[in-house]
What we know:
CATH topology of chain C: Immunoglobulin-like
Helix content of chain C: under 10%
Oligomer: heterotrimer
Strand content of chain C: 25-35%
CATH architecture of chain C: Sandwich
Distance between the termini of chain A: 41 Å
Order of helices and strands of chain C: HEEEEEEEEHEEEEE
Helix content of chain A: under 10%
Largest interface: A-B, 64 and 69 residues
Order of helices and strands of chain A: HEEEEEEEEEEEHEEHEEEEEEEEEEEE
Shape of chain C: globular
Number of strands of chain C: 13
Largest sheet of chain C: 4 strands, mixed
Number of helices of chain A: 3
Structural class of chain C: mainly beta
Radius of gyration of chain A: 23 Å
Number of helices of chain C: 2
Shape of chain A: globular
Radius of gyration of chain C: 18 Å
Number of domains of chain C: 1
Distance between the termini of chain C: 43 Å
CATH superfamily of chain C: Cupredoxins -  blue copper proteins
Number of strands of chain A: 25
Largest sheet of chain A: 7 strands, mixed
Strand order of the largest sheet of chain C: 2-1-4-7
Amino acid sequence: MRLRxxxxxxxxxxxxxALCLILWGGPAWAMIDGIPGPSFSLTATEGHISTPDGGxxxxxxxxxxxxxVQYPGPTFIVNQxxxxxxxxTNQLPYDQNASILFPGHVVSTQGGxxxxxxxxAPPGGTVTYTFTATHAGTYLYHSGTHPExxxxxxLLGAIIVRPAGYxxxxxxxxxxxxxRYDQEYLFLLSEMDPRLHLLVEFMGPDALxxxxxxxxxFPNYWFxxxxxxxxxxxxxxxxxxxxxxxxxxxxxxxxxxxxxxxxGAGRDVHPFHHHGNxxxxxxxxxxxxxxxxxxxxxxxxxxxxxxxxxxxxxxxIFEWTGQGMGWDIYGDPADPDYAHMCMxxxxxxFDDNTYEWCADHGKPFPVxxxxxxxxxxxxxxxxxxxxxxxxxxxxxxxxxxxxxGFVYMWHSHTEKEMVNYDIFPGGMMTxxxxxxxxxxxx
Amino acid sequence: xxxxxxxxxxxxxxxxxxxxxxPAIAQILVQxxxxxxGDSIPDPFLLLPNGNPSNKPNPEYDPGVKCMHLSxxxxxxxxxxxxxxxxxxxxxxxxxxxxxxxxxxMMSAAFPAPTIVLDEGDRFYLNLxxxxxxxxxxxxxxxxxxxxxxxxxxxxxxxxxDASISINMGSTLTYFYHxxxxxxxxxxxxxxxxxxxxxxxxxxxxxRPAQNRLPAGQDLNGFIHQAGYKYAYNDGDGSTYxxxxxxxxxxxxxxxxxxxxxxxxxxxxxxxxxxxxMLNGRGYPDTIVPGSLTPPMENMGRVSQTVSSLIxxxxxxxxxxxxxxxxxxxxxxxxSLGIPMKVVGYNARLLRGPSPDGITPGKDLxxxxxxxxxxxxxxxxxxxxxxxxxxxxxFLYTTNLNYLSNDDDPFGGMMTEIRIQ
Amino acid sequence: MKLxxxxxxxxxxxxxxxxxxxxxxPSLAMEYNLTAGTxxxxxxxxxxxxxxxxxxxDAGGGxxxxxxxxxxxxxxxxxxxxxTNNLPDPVSIVIPGQVPALSPVxxxxxxxxxxxxAASFTAETAGAGGLGAYQWNNLKPGSYIxxxxxxLALQVHMGLYGGVKIHAVAGEAYGMPYDNEVIxxxxxxxxxxxxxxxxxxxATPANPVNYKPKYFLINGQPYPAxxxxxxxxxxxxxxxxHERRRSKE
Lengths: 442, 421, 249
């Protein structure tokens, strides 16, 4: 008999451990980790990052004051209209000058020595940059000294500018309500060519002149927020990744609006594909896609893959309800184990709380799933196709999805970039978990 | 190498047929409402004992249901410079009875994978049977189908192995899709994505809009719909009307990776660099060969490349190109020389801003260009209007000019011809 | 690989006559006389790169990469390029985005497997002094690129490209008025794809699939430009520099 009987499952012990690992940590609301301004003090210095293939990669990065150097540099969170001041102290080795560029902003400098593109801090010295964050949005900052080398070495970071009138309880990316969201996540995309880092670490940057590593650039590590998968899915600030404090594991509930802030911080263009649904690109390069002031994002468009171009930022809103799936995502309401209601009092077609699509309420699961022995399970498979349900799995299977959420891979669709130096899986990849209503979030 | 692989293939086939490596629980099971004999084709009429249709309607038949049966396995294709290339792929085993699917499915892999064409509103049952790798009997990879871009997807049918389930050798997994949104999508295997996609498990997929089925004479804001008119999207004004359509799948292979896979070597992920750029699974001039290509000898007589990229139209016709990119290493730019491109759809959505009130159409975001740039996992819809174009032969080609070759065979690569009469 | 050349391309006179016959209404036409030839670029690190490029016969100054900037003033709806080809290989000219006046006649050869294959997107102008003409009518205004339509993987990389500015209204681009104009023409050089041009080649000498550019150019020069004052060279011709040729049909 092929029909799989579906039982409510008991939580295996291993799941509670996974629960602590995956879901604990981070702020109580899904806001992007960063440091508040409007004054910042950065130190450019050297360090090492870890990659999941056991690699330890030498890098140059920005540290918050005299804190630990990190990759990416600390995310600045400032408010529209702030006068932002960034003082940079240069502790880079090999006689390198250090500097910062703030694309999208008009910057004035104090101190430092004139460089090719901007004023720089000489070795051991400082330079100060000042700009007014005139527009809300998502921005980048990165080195302006030998950028072909220093940016790749890791001297990069993101800036979030909150719009005027920002209310953390009803957050918006820009002033217009079209930019409202419930959860926000930063996806800062970058790459590294380990040959380059190895050479600089042991021979210094001058040794690059006899190679073609800068023009024949061939990365083998790909990062979201400074980590390669599966480290992208660890909690922020784990102690065994001291120089890589940021995670990138988005979570949401059905019916919510999730803001993706995608920043192209590296050298390469990446097609960032978020499984699960389309998103609506509402802004690019810190500017709402609007036909005129106050019109809202009326020039926005939908994508399932965001083109992330180096030096550009994209803001997109992702929503999911399972509307139109054709079967009841919570199971058979007539089965006492799966009893649930779809109450739509405001007439929008969805349950007022769970955002279940009421037109699909009660529709049966459309196929028979194969026997367990015919299937290979993923770590995030709950054992059940229904949202919020778990079912018994063979020992050792699953375990990463203790609330039975729907899980989707968000990743670079240049699949070559889902590798950690010859080892699959890895690279520029993470997972979105859509938790059932009632499940704890961060 | 050829002799050795032929022997190994025969050995592998015998091994598999004897059930040596297939677990006892494995089952080929086709699920397709209205299908009475398990061949994944709905039967409008009840069947007679001899298997032929009777004249009694099948009460379970539903014209809104579409089914398909794909095999997942391996095979060979022919490159434009004459060499053969080992690949993994999906094959079309729709219509083959369940008890013959393993045998017929082996070495039935096609590149690109069989094109899936659906209509808005369909309920689509996709049966996926893992027939194993004939040339790599040491592999027991499961497979999935990921309908790339399917809106409001569920995990169970999304095909991502880490977040879901994948099907083992000798068994069938049935996917269900309630097809709500028209447009140009794509599909591929997502198991060990870097490997399986580089090896070729990639297909075209598109959905025709409900606007095609409007009654004749319907006024679409000034554009009068006639029977047989086709549109890319429910544009409401005929602006995505076209006469002929062609799916164009941008792809490329790394021959060193495929060779390593065939000869059971460690796979060189860290060195991956494609050297065979293709459209719909072929390099120029094979792209302009109409119909199927003669398969290489290693594929045991099974045709593996059936999708031509030759674009033909009469002057005045509108050509819809459903362009997608499924290569795993880089972005490509495709240009049209001599015929302007109008991009009307992007990522399976009409290129239009949001409606301010749910009724008024949003801002028109169509744009005219002569080149489009796509990374992996991107798709768009281009209409070529031949109204002011002189008859002749034009070109759709990559402006990444170094990819106008098949490895080191020049005057080839990612290029096809547009012939206007 | 065996190439069978079918004749030596359309003669300039024949092309013009044919264009005259097929062009519908009387119109104003801009005309340029270009020569395709060889040159050498010097990179800031001293490397000498053999290139192929276009020269404007009437302006003097020889072959440049990018080639001479072509300009079509307001009121002209047609562009003709008369080409003299001093290179060893046949070349042609195409402008992506513009529709050629005549039905294109790609140059095809038959390969060893008996398959017809295009070596050129349009009619070729034979090498070693051959003459050809290319015309586009109903020009769409804007910024475009012209480049060789023959053996693109080799020839365009070698430098056979340049810009075209087509004006609908003076001082406006796409309906937007502007005060100043700057040309940013991006290209790259992979020295491995630049063989000695004195040696005739039938195909790209190096495998183009392994394209690895070493030099990255704006307006034909990497930073720092040889002419330091000209880092962002503006390619424009003073109004009186070029006698405007108009032909009415």
